[in-house]
Model the fold of this input.
Amino acid sequence: MKITSIPSPPPAWAQFQLGPLTIHTYALCIIAGIIAAVWITGRRLAKRGVDAGFAIDAALWAVPLGIICARFYHVFTHVGDYFFPGANLWNVFAIWDGGNAIYGALIGGALGIWIACRRAGVRFWTFADALAPALLVAQSLGRFGNYFNHELYGIPTTLPWGLQIESTNPKFPPGLPAGTLFHPLFLYEIIWNLVGFAVLLLLERRFTLQWGKMLALYLIWYGTGRSYLESIRIDPSSNSFLGIPANVWASFVAVILGVVLLVVQSRRHPGAEPSPFTRPDSRARRKDPVAPAGESEEQISRS
Done:
């Protein structure tokens, strides 16, 4: 065991009692990520003329749908962990034990945001671009939950920063000696996401990245990094196709979708959005209820 290796936290740190309640550290990390994403998104929306509070309104739709889809995406890509003779089917809903797939969360969250934007009259792309870099911060905070749950680690490594995983861990590869170190994928993803957050903000200062282009760059950045991390991840129960894990395929889809979105929106909308609102009578709370000078009603309502 190397002196510089990363120890896993004691299993007792994964949860604690608060009166009659059991508080799971994984859940706290997810909540911290949600709070950070709402705060960052609200500040970015305010710069476009939308009340920062709308980020909370959208979260009320996006978070529940995101959690539901994240869980079911994970379950159906790890069928063997939940459906076997004698299995407790209630474990399908045990999100506090980990297993909430980000790609499922993106699908459910996007649906929730679309509903919120549709109801409020805010352009979906405006919100998506405000949210894109915030997602990377939220995902970084959420990955600490994987650390406390002793999950999301990669193949064995001799690097100084290898992660210590107990040999009694259900996913510890058979045949390896106790004390084997593994790539700390949770840490790699945290670093990749925070670097991506900085890169996206720098690109946004240099270029006009609206109409979904920031979202496109997020999909490209995150999908690229995640495809590599998943390829070296130890996750024996994950479903695969043609020998490639499901999450690697999903990462490829995210990158392709991001490239297509960037190309299409760059051609269709080379300039800036005229307004973040899709209709003049929008119910969204605005910083300035008066449309910017020079904008026609037709321009504002165009989505």
